[in-house]
Amino acid sequence: MTRTYEGADKASLGLLKIVKERGIETLFDRYQAQQPQCGYGKLALCCRHCNLGPCNVDPTGVGPKRGVCGADANTIAARHFLRMVAAGAAAHSDHGRAVAELLIATARGEAPGYKETRQKLWEKLGITPRAIDREITEALHRTGMGADQDYKNLIRHASRTALGDGWGGAMIATELQDILFGTPKPIRGKANLGVLKEDEVNILVHGHEPQISEMVVIASQDPALLKSAESVGAKGITIAGICCTANELLMRHGIPMAGHMKMQELAIATGAVDAMVVDVQCIMQGVAEMAKCFHTKLITTSAKARIEGVEHLEISDETALEKAKKIVWMAIENYPKRDKNKINIPKGEMAEIVVGFSHETIKYMLGGKFRASYRPLNDNIMNGRIRGVAGIVGCTSPAIWPDQQPYVQLVKELIANNVLVVQTGCAAAECARGGLMIPEYKDYAGETLREVCEAVGIPPVLHAGACVDNSRILIACSEMVKEGGLGHDISDLPVAGACFEWMHEKALAIGQYFVASGVYTVFGISSPVSGAPDVQKLLCEGLEHELGGMWAFEPDIKKMGRLMMDHIEKKREALGINKERERKLYDMEERRKLEII
Ligand code: SF4
Ligand code: MSK
User: Which among 446, 410, 441 has a CA at the least distance from the CA of 427?
Assistant: First the structure.
């Protein structure tokens, strides 16, 4: 990886230069130190699922073709794929369970069910999820030594497990969080490291479950704590988010977003973070080392995610507010310990944003209070003003040095071609920092998409939430089908999904539930099954015949955009909406018939 310190992401590059000069390690250094990464691992051709191994399969065919048990490349790669999907599904679903427990403790609520033709297809293929825990347990059983050795069967169960996540675990998490903390509505906010304040106590909340961060926000408004902050010389208390917690707080309360996954260490390197509070998922152990180089107090809060040597303050539903106040107090106490020489908040690095486009909000904005509906969206897709919809979601990775911003490039290209973009997760955070999420950005959209954005009052790039909230996109797709005029199934819609810098297993679970729901889904960087051509072919071609959706893996961002737009046009063609409609001129006889109807 060539490292230049000039480029669009000035905030990250400036801090990377500073930490390099100080000899402080970041994820980018660790990524570099791992190069070249294990070739077998990269190709998904190593297995250590039992103690006969570890076994490698030689992709050149010269060395071993099978593991000790006889498993071939396809079985090994498909098992890895299924295990990763299961782990991703487990993360979302455990998140959903935690929210449900909180909800039971406070109120009763129900999540909506959605029926469509697609369910019949899942029944036919035997991939209708039964219960999320059951599918995850079965995934682990199937992938152990001596169980499922048919890659097609393994991938089928990956679909079942992923569907249990997208339409089950993750959807429950989103719906229940909306009940507990409010359904997001458009709200203004700010993004990037410049949201940290030199003269205030800065607390970063990082992770995924809003139960804890919501309480930290409430605690930070406590008059007694604000007074305490003043007493140590701070003008106030700033809360800012990292990763998907940032998305959650931003879209519900307008709490500023400091950055995404690969910025978590750099945020501490500003020297202005008095406390970083973490819960679960995407929290790197590296933050503990980074915190040691500064005055930052790192606090873990979940029994499911502790870091050795880091202060742990476990938060339960009953004690959340009390513990959150303690955390705020710890940050206040820490404020005077800042080393002024180490403070480097990237000045001026802050973008205005408008976020909070839940599917309910999109429906409302399109149709108004009394006629909330997806009709205007479908009509504008049918008349060609909007070519289609793209979901650009998922992670950020140190494989991409911050002088490039592939998500920003991709989104710019899509909207310029009149494709409406919906975003979640760290990809959304990256484009928010890039300044793409304001209504004024419509001026960068193609002419017809711009007209629609102006008429409806939405940006061409819609922020729909955290990575767990991709279920909102599934619901929006269902609504589009239900509204009519764009086919009878999600797989008929001119839509495509992408995750360029995918990193977490959750991303694979999301990709697979989109594919199994009928959506064409493109992932960047590398394929998780590249060493097994048959599995790759199944994912990228075979699944389309069964499910209507399929994968593509494309490491070139330009080509990724082209693939998505080609797919959208292919679907438009199949729907017959690319043709100019002939004007039908009725004669008197036909008019009379119309009136009778
Ligand atoms: Fe080797 Fe088979 Fe055991 Fe995997 S399951 S480690 S391929 S013997
Ligand atoms: S935080 S899963 S890096 S989106 Fe949800 Fe970001 Fe991916 Fe983690």
Answer: 410
Name the closest ligand to CA 147: 1
SS3 419: strand
Report in angstroms the alpha-carbon separations of 214 from 221, 362, 423: 11, 24, 22
Q: How far, in Å, is the centroid of ligand 1 from the Cα of 144?
A: 9
Ligand 1 closest atom vs CA 53: 6
- Say yes or no: CB of residue 72 within 6 Å of ligand 1: no
Write the DSSP string, 80-120: HHHHHHHHHHHHHHHHHHHHHHHHHHH----------HHHH
Q: 3-class SS at 574?
A: helix
Residue 68: CB within 6 Å of ligand 1?
A: yes
- Within 6 A (CB) of ligand 2 lie 208, 243-244, 260-261, 282, 394-395, 425-426, 466-467, 503-504, 506-507
Task: Tell me which residue has its CA closest to atom 2 in ligand 1.
Answer: 69
- Which ligand lies nearest to the CA atom of residue 257 in the structure? 2
Rounded CA gap, 497 and 124, in Å?
25
Find the largest Cα–Cα distance for the chain.
87
Q: How far is the CA of 108 from the centre of ligand 1 (A)?
A: 47
| Residue pair 127/516 in contact by the 8 Å Cβ criterion | yes
Ligand 2: which residue has its CA nearest to atom 7? Answer: 395
CA of 394 to the centre of ligand 2 (A): 6
- Tens-digit pLDDT profile for the chain (597 aa)? 678 998 889 999 999 999 999 999 999 999 999 999 999 999 999 998 888 779 999 999 999 999 988 889 999 999 999 999 998 988 888 778 777 777 666 654 433 333 487 889 999 999 999 989 999 999 999 999 889 999 999 999 999 999 999 999 899 999 889 988 999 999 999 999 999 999 999 999 999 988 889 999 999 999 999 999 999 999 999 999 999 999 999 999 999 999 999 999 999 999 999 999 999 999 999 999 999 999 999 999 999 999 999 999 998 888 899 999 999 999 999 999 999 999 999 988 899 999 999 888 888 887 766 677 899 999 999 999 999 999 999 999 999 999 999 999 999 999 999 999 999 999 999 999 999 999 999 999 999 999 999 998 899 999 999 999 999 999 999 999 999 999 999 999 999 999 999 999 999 999 999 999 999 999 999 999 999 999 999 999 999 999 999 999 999 999 999 999 999 999 999 999 987 545 555 566 655 554 443
Q: How far is CA 331 from its chain centroid? A: 29
User: Rounded to whole angstroms, what are the CA distances from 137 to 87, 142, 309, 377, 514?
Assistant: 10, 9, 32, 40, 21
**Ligand 1 centroid distance, CA of 138 (Å):** 18
Cβ atoms of 399 and 4 closer than 8 Å: no
